[in-house]
């Protein structure tokens, strides 16, 4: 019983040493991605120099009143901060600004990405020393 108790206390300390820094333009979307990374059991830092990985939230597009295409598209890219290599990239998600998402296409796009694709990309990030 003491062994299990000790295991459960030290397991969170040893489980993941990766730290992530999230960069993006939209604060609401950025906070949502940060909370998802924390939920998955990783650490998030506010200093990009001390982070092991950089999470870049990239979005592109323009709004047109009369258009049947999805004018905005975005994805998340994870970069190893030590050597600058790209570790992973989520699928591209398209969306329109609308009243449901507060006329903020970025929030809708990154919410969908963080639910569907981000956990798989986070698993590709190796622990330090591994």
Characterize this entry briefly:
The protein has four helices and six strands. The protein has helices at residues 2-15, 27-39, 105-116, 118-122, and strands at residues 19-23, 43-44, 53-61, 72-80, 86-89, 93-95.
Shape verdict: elongated
| Mean of residue pLDDT values | 84
Regarding CATH, which class? Alpha Beta
CATH architecture type: 2-Layer Sandwich
Parts with pLDDT < 50 across at least 5 consecutive residues? 4-14
Q: End-to-end distance, in Å?
A: 30 Å
Proportion of residues in extended strands? 15-25%
Number of discrete helical segments: 4
Mind describing the biggest β-sheet?
6 strands, mixed
Q: Please provide the ordered H/E string of secondary-structure elements.
A: HEHEEEEEHH
Protein architecture, described:
This protein is of the alpha/beta class. The chain has a single domain, classed as Double Stranded RNA Binding Domain, CATH 3.30.160. The protein has four helices and six strands, in the order H-E-H-E-E-E-E-E-H-H. Strands 1, 2, 3, 4, 5 and 6 form a six-stranded mixed sheet that branches. Helix 2 runs parallel beside helix 3. It is elongated and about 50 Å long. The two termini are 30 Å apart. Residues 4-14 have low confidence and may be disordered.
Structural descriptors:
about 130 residues; alpha/beta; Double Stranded RNA Binding Domain; 6-stranded mixed beta sheet; 6 strands; about 25% strand; elongated
């Amino acid at each position: 019983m003491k062994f299990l108790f000790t295991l459960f206390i030290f397991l969170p300390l040893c489980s993941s040493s990766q730290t992530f820094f999230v960069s993006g333009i939209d604060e609401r979307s950025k906070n949502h991605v940060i909370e998802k990374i924390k939920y998955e059991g990783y650490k998030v830092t506010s200093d990009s120099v001390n982070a092991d990985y950089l999470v870049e939230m990239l979005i592109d597009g323009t709004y047109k009143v009369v258009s049947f295409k999805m004018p905005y598209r975005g994805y998340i890219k994870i970069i190893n901060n030590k050597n600058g290599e790209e570790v992973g990239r989520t699928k591209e998600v398209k969306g329109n600004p609308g009243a449901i998402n507060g006329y903020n296409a970025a929030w809708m796009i990154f919410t969908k990405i963080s639910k569907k694709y981000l956990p798989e990309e986070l698993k590709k990030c190796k622990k330090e020393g591994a």
